[in-house]
Amino acid sequence: MNETESRPIVTEDHVREALKQVIDPELHVNIVDLGLIYLIDLRELPDQAPGVQAYIEMTMTSPMCPAGPQLVGGAKQHAGSVPGVVDVDVKVVMDPPWTPDRMTEDARDQLGMF
Question: Whose CA is closest to 85, among 11, 35, 26?
């Protein structure tokens, strides 16, 4: 078996599902359903062991979100737990600003928003 065949196949969906384990401590909804994840980009790391880097761009519900460091740390931890992900880079962006329109229907239901 060659090196490519021995690598776990990692998809954006695998990482997105792992990120659903990160729960906003104030709203009690996961960061994916809240619409805080803007980008998941899987990048090959040619000089390292087989695997990919998960580059994630995410935002917060407000620029001064007190849970920001906890959410970023959770995103790194859970994305890094996906088999085949050997590095995680999370960048917090504020453009475009987050609005409740980014939430899924599930998140709206959990928060009682109609």
Answer: 11
